[in-house]
Amino acid sequence: MKLTLLIFAGLTLLSSPLAFAQEKDTEPFKFIEIGEIPVFGKNVDKQTRCVHWHSDLDIIAIKFKCCDKYFPCFSCHEEEADHPHQVWPKSEFDQKAILCGVCGTELRIRDYMASDNTCPHCQSGFNPGCSNHYHLYFETLEVRPSPKGIK
Ligand SMILES: [Zn+2]
Ligand SMILES: [Zn+2]
Ligand SMILES: [Zn+2]
Q1: 107 C-alpha vs ligand 3 centroid, how far in Å?
Q2: Is residue 46 over pLDDT 90?
Q3: Counting runs of H as helices and runs of E as strands, what totals does the chain give?
Q4: How many A from CA of 123 to the centre of ligand 2?
Q5: Is residue 114 pLDDT above 60, yes or no?
Q6: Is the pLDDT of residue 59 over 80?
Q7: Closest ligand (CA of 48)
Q8: Ligand nearest to the CA of 82
Q9: Per-residue model confidence (pLDDT) at position 138
Q10: Strand partners, 62
Q11: Strands 60-64, 96-100: parallel, antiparallel or unpaired by DSSP?
Q12: What is the Å distance from ligand 3's center to 22 Cα?
């Protein structure tokens, strides 16, 4: 009788670490925090890279006007938010709506646009390709790629 109990206890002890090992840790975080600022969406790391954009340079999050929340990218907002997105009107380009995932600094929209794709605070490089998608986030400026930028 005693032996059976011992075996049972032994098995219980052995099985608990296994249960932990089976827990998935590959699920994208529901949201992450950069400093104290929550970033929603399908984040895959702690510098606001997401399942859609995750190169070395994809380190910024954008606050959406519609919900006043930061998301790593437009697709994250599309997939996670329950409402259509709104772009920032030109009159509000003084708002802080860009978050550097490396140093946690919030940039005003106009400062981000003038930043030459480099964080003014920590000098990390931002993805220059983001400027092709300004119209998804900001009221479109007549900023076109300069002729030398076109192949
Ligand atoms: Zn929104
Ligand atoms: Zn995304
Ligand atoms: Zn930075």
Answers
A1: 9
A2: yes
A3: 4, 6
A4: 23
A5: yes
A6: yes
A7: 2
A8: 1
A9: 96
A10: 71, 98
A11: antiparallel
A12: 36
Give the number of other CB atoms < 10 A from CB of residue 58: 22
Q: Which residue has the tokens 């932990």?
A: 20
By CB neighbour count within 10 A (0-12 exposed, 13-18 middle, 19+ buried), where does 33 fall?
exposed
From the list 49, 42, 28, 29, the residue with the least C-alpha distance to 99 is 49
Residue 24 C-alpha to ligand 1 middle, in angstroms? Answer: 29
Cα(149) to centroid of ligand 1, in Å?
Answer: 32
| Model confidence, pTM | 0.75
> How big, in percent rounded to 5, are the helix, strand and coil portions of the chain?
30, 25, 45
d(CA 139, CA 65): 11
How many whole angstroms from 127 Cα to the centroid of ligand 1? 22
